[in-house]
Design brief:
Helices cover about 80% and strands about 0% of the residues. It is mostly helical. It has a domain of about 55 residues: Methane Monooxygenase Hydroxylase, Chain G, domain 1 (Up-down Bundle). The chain is globular and about 55 Å long.
Amino acid sequence: MRNLIWLCLILVVPVASAQQALLSEASQYKSTEYKRALDLYEKALEIDPNNIEALTEAGLLQTKIGNRSANKEEKEIYFKKALDHTKKAVMLNPSSCMANYTYGVALGRMGDISGARDRVQNSQIIKNHCEKALEIDPKHAPSWHLLGKLNYRLSNLNVAERAAAAVLFGGLPKGVSTEKAVECYEKAVEYNGDYLLYRLDLAVALIKTKNKGRAIDVLETAIKIPAITEDDDSYLADCKSLLRKLK
């Protein structure tokens, strides 16, 4: 019996070590080289398909890569994979902050390429998972940002989306507003002030609420922040462009 236990350990430990090595390497590239990191997370999932870190990080990267694609079919492929990974993560661990957050992101991205009814219908699910993530970790900046984006989008719906909201909810979900979006974005900036997208989205929401002076302050701070992600050059260009328009 003892020999059998040792044999199992000999077989299992190298596999676990290999997976941890993949996860560690992937974490080094997840901000700066999306596709390289995704490949590593997917290799980790080949070893253990139920690894929460690999599922959530792979799902999040798939939303980022898909969002950058100009091809709708490619977007859909990436977003569907992201939804599969993050939904599985939530099912495996409903108490994971990252699982709830990334599932919300994946649903939101699917909504970007879906019809008005689906976008609005998914909004309540996204809200629920955002709030769950923040119950688990009240200082989780990405969840605050996602909740802010949800509030901003819902409070600025087009005609078709407003019609869908009227049918599904009898109007907008309670408490949704651009002012609430500003509050959420400010929380995101408070907990991670180095992420350019949070400041960019905060500035846009401030402009919408006619707070031009505060928006300028936010953008002037943003353009001094060094790039840390693969998307930051684009966000920085948007910040500079918006700032020029405001001055």
